[in-house]
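Hey, sorry to bother you again with one of my protein questions. A protein chain has come my way and I'm curious about its shape. I'm sending you its amino acid sequence along with the backbone structure tokens. I owe you a coffee for this, so here goes:
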Amino acid sequence: MGKILLAKMPENYRNNYFISTSAMDMLIKFGDAESAERIFRSIETKNIITYNAMIKGYVGNETFEKALDLFEQI
């Protein structure tokens, strides 16, 4: 259901960091880290909230090396 909503979401809403971060969180909780990564990469101006959401997702999915790599990019 969540992926259907994301697919139908207008492009200008995807550029909202609050919505993008929530979408990343949802995808990660359902084990779709790849889609969450695509959203993360598409965010033009990342902030501590978007970085934290992705790092939290990596840790939750036990991809600790990716979490550390992303932390070092901040």
User: Anything to note?
Assistant: The first helix runs from residue 2 to 8. Residues 2-73 form one domain. The radius of gyration is 12 Å. The chain has a mean pLDDT of 85.
